[in-house]
Every structure is written in C-alpha cells, then in structure tokens.
Model the fold of this input.
Amino acid sequence: MVTARLRVQDIEFSYDAVPILRSIDFEAGEGEIVAVLGPNGSGKTTLLRCMNRALSPSMGTVMVEERDLGSLTRKEIAKEMAVVPQNCVITFPFTALEVVMMGRNPSMDRFSREGKEDLEIVRQAMEATNVTGLAARTMNQLSGGERQRVIIARALAQKPKIMLLDEPTLHLDVNHQMDIMDLVKDLARREKLTVIMVSHDLNLAARYCDKAILLENGKVLSAGPVPEVLTQDNVLRVFKIRSVVQYDERIQSYSMTVLGTVQ
Done:
C-alpha cells in the first residue's frame, strides 16, 4: 500500500464571498501521478494554487509528510513543492541553463552564488529531462516542447517531493504531448515524485495517471483510481459526452474512447 505523502484536508476557498472550492479532500502517495479533472470553472487551477499557498484557503490544511504548509515560509514551501505553471512567460533572453539554475534559488542565501552542489543538481535535472544539449540556447530559440522540458527541469532542480503541473501539455502538438507525459511518468517513478496534474485531456489522464479527482462545481464528485473515477456515468454527468474507458494491452494502460456528445 502506498503511504500518503500529500494530504489535502477540507480545503475551501472563495472569491469575493463566491464559493469556488468546497470541502476538498484527497491524498497522494510517493511516485503517484494524480489528475485533477473537471470542466472550465470547476476550480482545478484554484485548487493547485491553494495547495502551494499562492492562494490562502479559508479553511483546511495541506500536509506534506505531516508538515502543514500553512505554517511554512514561501522558501520552505518551495523546497517541498515545485510548480510548472500553465503559461510560463520568460521575457529576458535567459539561456536554458540559467532558467534551470533558477530552481536552486529557494536553497540559496539571498546574495550567494551557486556552488558545486547546485551545479551538480542542475546538471542532473537537465540530464533527467534531456535538455543538456539546449543549455546555451535562449528560451526564445526553443520549441514549445523544449521549453516545457526546461521548465520541468527548473522545477526538478528545486529537489521537491511534490510537483504541481497546470495543463503541462497545453498548446503542444500530439507528439510533444506524449513526449512530456512520458517524461512526467518516468520522473515520478525514477525520482519518486508525487505529481498532481491539472488537465483537460481525459485520454492522457486515463493513460498516464494512477488516480484522478473529478471536480464538479467546486466539489469532489469522485476520487480514486482512474477507471473508478472516469466512469461512463461520471463523464456523461460532468462533461456531457458518452465515452468508454478500457484497459488497452497494447499500451499496458487505460485509454478513453469518446462515443459522442449529448445535448
């Protein structure tokens, strides 16, 4: 049985007295990939931002190995949890190496320079994400898939226990989507990362994730192993589509077939 590394307990959040999240509870273990699913406006990204304390929930706690993140500083949280945002805009002509090195900032004193340990951690992160060959290239010279790998390498350089991904395959071609998800799955297994991933792509979630959390109007409709969450009834209720999730021996994982929409 996988021991829970992350526990989200009774999280609630409102914007201007309008409830966005209500009584959110779930847990995730070491090496697990958990998809946060739901239609637009269901609270997916808000939940991610509450988890890393970018937003302060009105109620509830987020525990990482029995430590309450609400009691930690921003720098301490960054050592526990790394974020790969939906849109990462880098306007200055930083090289890929410089961007990945930014991941070491939470572990460095304010005016100190990177040491041998930092350089080694960055080297390992770039090697793990296969971006070593891009080190000297600026971010505006990279493709969308390459940039996303560099941002994941930056998050990995923080040496986190948990990685939060907000739509990591958004705007990527199908081949790059698969490439990024293969990378995420490999990192979760090899680095024993706990990965929480917001996604609109139900098929990618079915194929790559161990568990799923399905949100409806800010509440958890269903949480657990992917095939128990992405049932025909749940998908029909939340997304208004008819579908089937089946285990596919060819990929040794689950896949979703969309049969049609309903009015």
User: Anything to note?
Assistant: The radius of gyration is 19 Å.
